[in-house]
Each structure stands twice: as C-alpha cells, then as structure tokens.
Amino acid sequence: MSKKIQAIRGMNDLLPAQSPLWQYFEDQVRDLMARYGYDEIRTPIVEQTALFKRSIGEVTDIVEKEMYTFEDRNGDSLTLRPEGTASCVRAALEHGLLHNQTQRLWYQGPMFRHERPQKGRYRQFHQIGVEAFGLEGPDIDAETILLSARLWQQLGLFEYVTLELNSLGSPEARAAYRDTLVSYFEAHHDVLDEDSRRRLTSNPLRILDSKNPDMAAMLADAPRLMDHLDAESKEHFERLCALLDAADIAYEINPRLVRGLDYYSRTVFEWTTTALGSQGTVCAGGRYDGLVEQLGGKPVPAVGFAMGIERLVLLLETLDLVPDEARGALDVYLLPMDEASTATALLLGERLRETLPELRAQLHCGGGSFKSRLKKADKSGARLALLLGEDELAEGSVTLKYLREEREQQRLRQEDLIAALTPLLEGESFA
Ligand code: HAM
C-alpha cells in the first residue's frame, strides 16, 4: 500500500458530524445580517501581496511571519488572504462602491495565517466579518457592536463573553503618544524582553499587548493612550460609550487593547471569553478611517469586525449550547423490508417530502437481511423508522417503529401518516 497523504498541519477537514453545527451558526449569521441591512460580498482567497503589506502593516506579526506568500507562474507575488478587511476595501474601491455612498457589507470564508497551531488557533480558519463604509459617527460603531451582541444572545452565549473597548485616537495623537511611550520603555529597558526590545523601534504600541508576567508591573504603570487622545477622538469614544450604555451593553475599557493590525484608528474592541483557554478572543475589530485612502481611494471612514467561526463553534460545544436543530438528526428512516417494497418506500418518501418540507427522511438502500436493515435504521440516528413489508403493501399501511423511545410500534394507513408526523416536526412527541 502506498503511504497515505495527510492534510496540512493546522488546516482542518470539516466532517459530516460537525457540519450541522456550522450550518446552524452560518444560518443564524446570514439571517442576522439581513435583519440589519448588511449585504454579502465575496472576494477571492488570493490577492496581490502588496495589498496586505500596505494595509495590515509591514511590521506586524501577520505580515512579517504569518502570510502564505508565493510567486505564481507569471512571477507575481501573491498571498492567501490572512484576513478580510483589506480585500473588502480593495473590492469596494475597484467597483466604485464607495463613491458618494455608504456601504454595509459582510463576508465569510477561509483565512490563512502560518501561526503555531493549538486549540482555537489554526492555519486555515474561518471568519465572518462586517465592514461599514462612509459613516464616521459612533452610531455605526455602536450598531456593529449591537449586531454582534445580538448574535451572542441568539446563540445563548451572551453571558459568557466580555466586551473590551479602547480608542486609539487619531494617527497624530497616536504618533505623539508613541514618543511618550518609547521614552517610558527606554527608561525601563532592563525589564523589556527580547521581543519587546525589537518592537521598541518598529511597533512600540504592541509591547502593551505582551503577556510576559515579568513585564506586567512595568506595563501597568505605562502611560495610557486614553489619556493622550485628541479632543475629537475623545468625544467620539464618549459618545460611543453613551450609546452602549443606552443599549444596556456592558463593556470594560481596556487601555492596553491595541490590536495586531496597523490600520486602526479610534474605536477598537474585542469580545473575549475565559472558556476557551488562551485563544479567548472570539470577535474583534474597530474603526479604520485611514485605510481606504491608504489603498488608493479618497478618504472614507470605516468600521468593522471579524469573528472566528472555529472558536465560536468550540465555545458552543464547550458550554453545551448546541441546540437539537444543530445536531442534524434525521426524523425518519424509510425502511422497505424486502425488494418488493422498495418502490413503495421510495415513492412514500417523495410524497412525505412534498407535503412536509421540514422533514428529514432517509431511504434505506442496499438491501440486506431484516436484522441488518434494522441496525442501519438505528445507526441512522432517526427518531422513527417507517417499515414497509408484504403486509403493509397489501393493506396500504405503514408501521411506525420508535427508535429512541420505549414505545409499542404502531400501524397506520399511509394516508394518515402526514397527520401523525406533523407533531414530530413541531418538536412534540406523537399522539
Ligand atoms: P483579527 O483580530 O486578526 O482581526 O481576527 C479576528 C478574529 O478571527 C479573531 O478574534 C479570532 O476569533 C479569529 N482568528 C484570528 N486568527 C485565527 C486563527 N489563527 N485561528 C482561528 N481563529 C482566528 C481581523 O482579522 C480584522 N480583519 C477584523 C476587522 C474587520 N477589523 C475591522 N474590520
């Protein structure tokens, strides 16, 4: 036998047992986006490398260490997208979607980062993201946050996540703050670890994100960007906080929240959970008023976020919040007991599906002994088997066998079947 070829580390197959939960999650999101008036955009998985370098920033972890970059056959440098915002801006600009108009867009799909795989962190992962263009006030920031909060509510997750909020101010205020911060770090040079020393010149704000316990005390006393905001950003932030207060959405202001992508200005936020270990950020985003211009357009304010589907699915499983409808179980297994009953079972299945579009019914195929047929019925996970044999054929009936309940089986006329199955679809037990 030849050696088996395996999937690439950090890139996962989504197996049939897991897909009902993903579909449930995606359905909830799709429905929610429509309810808030967001339109879907789909962009290619591969873009020119320059797009990500210019938007995410040359000296970020993503661009420096994590991108899947390759030369194509023409010698062009291409990259598998590590996130969706840059592509979304590129597409919106390319197709004139930002010209004198606002846009509320959402997207979903795989993203690629060459990080060290661990629970909740993968090299191919899936995001759902939202980007709103052309609106500069804090009302849209608040709306995107409320949209995500509603999703947590719908999924039963709301009490398990915390909203962390910060403002990064204007680029000018941030540049001034950067100087203050660098002076502070230089005065504490001996406490800085190697990574932080490297960042001191390239990206000193990211030092604030360090989890190194030896630096914790020094970081706690570091000057806070919140105290160095420009007046307009400060007001923007206060108005956002007031809107969240009015909507009764609790938040923690985290002055050290800086995010790992360079394009942000003003609002940044993260939804985090303690239930997943170290990869606890399930959704993150913020405002990026300078990015459209940086990518060649006229200035257009923008705000958005993205959530990691794997982390959210994992959270639903960990907290035992997977509803029955997300388990994908069959309702009915149609079981012809011999060759002669096959056509009747097949047609009965079609009739049922026509009248009961919600019904999930599977037909037994492939013959086998009576015992093995029943075994398959049980293994199918269906609640009910519909048995059709010689007797049933002769009298136009069907036998209902309960596969998950201790109940006598029951024989019905085929025309009474629909009425008998209806309560099953409404989540009730049978009459
Ligand atoms: P991000 O913080 O890099 O932001 O990613 C957003 C979310 O994607 C994270 O909070 C996490 O849930 C998930 N995620 C990121 N990396 C991985 C990974 N390696 N494995 C599993 N899940 C992961 C962005 O990507 C921005 N584009 C968000 C945004 C949109 N900002 C404005 N608009």
From TrEMBL:
The name this protein goes by in its record: Histidine--tRNA ligase
GO CC terms, sorted: cytoplasm
Top-rank EC class of the record's enzyme: ligase
Keyword vocabulary terms for this entry: Aminoacyl-tRNA synthetase, ATP-binding, Cytoplasm, Ligase, Nucleotide-binding, Protein biosynthesis
SUPFAM superfamilies assigned: Class II aaRS ABD-related, Class II aaRS and biotin synthetases
Cross-referenced PROSITE patterns: AA_TRNA_LIGASE_II (PS50862)
Catalytic activity field: tRNA(His) + L-histidine + ATP = L-histidyl-tRNA(His) + AMP + diphosphate + H(+)
Enzyme Commission number(s): 6.1.1.21
Subcellular localization, as worded in the UniProt entry: Cytoplasm
Gene Ontology MF terms: ATP binding; histidine-tRNA ligase activity
GO BP of this protein: histidyl-tRNA aminoacylation
Quaternary context: Homodimer.
Annotated residues for binding of L-histidine: 83-85, 113, 127, 131, 259, 263-264
Organism whose genome encodes this protein: Halomonas cerina
Primary location group: cytoplasm
Domain Aminoacyl-transfer RNA synthetases class-II family profile intervals: 1-336
Annotated family: Belongs to the class-II aminoacyl-tRNA synthetase family.
Coiled-coil region(s): none
